[in-house]
Write a structure and sequence with these properties.
Adenine-n6-DNA-methyltransferase TaqI, Chain A, domain 2; 4-stranded antiparallel beta sheet; 35% helix; elongated; endonuclease; DNA-binding; Restrct_endonuc_typeI_TRD_sf
């Protein structure tokens, strides 16, 4: 890609500036040694020092298998999978062939190379080959042409980006903390208003509350299903009057909200009992898996897969209040549910789960109050997500502009530095 560079910069082949290091193909076994064995999951920020899983190799394994040990200062770059994921090695470590090591020579500052490789992700992806899994070879990396400012300017750019990205990241973290604080307050309010605090024994039941097993608050309980493979393919894309949404755990998004269905089914699939029918007003709960205990209120007719259970509220019981109470008890459900490797919230367990039910008019008042607070929290989350997306786009534009010479970082004010800059 042809670049217009500042007068003091030049374009050079990466292979002339770094020593390229490729790990051995074979995976060591066991991985119990002191030299970290790192994977893509261990990448988190500019520096990498250790394996989050604690996996490692011994010096004896390094010698016996002739393993490539990346030295401090080496820039590790993913050459497959998450193409362009980059980090600077700070302690000696070993990896698999997901990565290539770029050991800078005297003309390259490691931090500048770190930012540059991150800015070149799209170019790396475009150059990758492979039908099943895309890959960049050592020769592909060596042939890359990169912009190269003088070494002192590389360090100045790296210092500037270290400072600016840290400032941007701290703002993003602050937004996340604000959203989490609002969510925690809603959770606490929901526990108090729906009686979960009462159930947990933090206060004595008042004369206006009734507590009993969940089975007494529902008229029906159903588990979802997936159409059998022997059935004619029932799926249909999109929506039209003769379809019904079919949900999975991935559809549970936000606060008791159902997002995009996994698929849509023809209504005939429900009529013929290929899958169960969940009526509007039902309370859905994920019964097994990593997200077990998540709750959603169904404001339309639907169906779902076998990981999801639907509760039909008894007459006189507010389905939305019941949903709020179970939402407030998500952690409680997970703690008390039977376990294998994951919590299993089965129907028998659910029917015996203790709940508190105030008078009907009180239920409605609580629902209105919690819905109002949830709407504000949801709006805050949406605004923060949009702001974070914009911030990350500007962050990347800032990095790209700095490492390609679009502006002189020595004259940047540190504020609105990406205004008018294009990646």
């Amino acid at each position: 890609m042809k670049r217009l560079l500042p007068a003091s910069w030049r374009e050079a082949r990466l292979g002339f500036l770094v020593e390229t290091q490729v790990p051995q193909r074979d995976k060591p076994d066991p991985l119990t040694g002191p030299i970290p064995w790192v994977r893509i999951e261990d990448f988190d920020g500019q520096d990498i020092r250790a394996s989050k899983s604690g996996q490692g190799v011994t010096p004896e394994q390094v010698r016996a298998m002739n393993l490539r040990v990346f030295e401090p200062g080496t820039v590790m770059c993913s050459c497959s999978c998450s193409m362009g994921a980059t980090a600077i090695v700070r302690e000696p470590l070993v990896s698999n062939q997901t990565f290539i090591g770029l050991k800078p020579g005297k003309e390259l500052e490691p931090r500048f190379l770190f930012y540059l490789m991150g800015a070149m992700r799209e170019e790396l992806q475009a150059n990758a080959t492979g039908a099943i899994q895309q890959y960049l070879s050592r020769d592909d990396f060596r042939s890359l042409r990169i912009p190269l400012p003088p070494l002192n300017q590389q360090r100045r750019i790296a210092d500037f980006l270290d400072s600016e990205t840290a400032r941007i990241d701290s703002l993003s973290a602050l937004r996340e903390r604000q959203v989490q604080l609002a969510f925690t307050r809603l959770e606490s309010l929901a526990k108090q208003e729906t009686g979960r605090i009462l159930i947990r024994g933090a206060k004595e039941p008042s004369g206006e509350w009734m507590t009993y097993p969940l089975r007494r608050a529902i008229s029906g309980i159903k588990t979802g299903a997936t159409p059998p493979g022997s059935e004619p393919e029932p799926w249909t894309e999109g929506t039209h009057p003769d379809t019904i949404p079919w949900y999975g755990p991935s559809s549970f998004q936000g606060i008791m909200h159902l997002g995009t269905p996994v698929k849509h089914l023809p209504s005939a699939a429900v009529k013929e009992r290929v899958v169960p029918f969940f009526a509007k007003g039902s309370v859905l709960i994920i019964g097994i898996g990593a997200t077990a205990g998540k709750v959603a209120y169904l404001d339309h007719d639907a169906s779902a897969n076998q990981q999801i259970t639907a509760l039909t509220p008894e007459r006189g019981v507010s389905g939305k209040f019941l949903a709020w109470q179970l939402w407030a008890a998500t952690q409680e459900l997970r703690e008390l549910a039977p376990y294998t490797t994951l919590p299993i919230i089965n129907n028998d367990f659910l029917k015996s789960f203790p709940i508190a039910m105030p008078p009907t008019d009180f239920q409605q008042a609580v629902v209105q109050k919690l819905d109002c607070v949830a709407e504000r929290v949801g709006a805050l989350h949406a605004a923060a997500a949009q702001a974070s997306k914009l911030t990350q786009e500007r962050r990347q534009s800032l990095i790209t502009a700095a490492v390609t010479g679009q502006f002189d970082v020595s004259t940047a004010s540190g504020r609105n530095v990406t205004e008018g800059v294009t990646a």
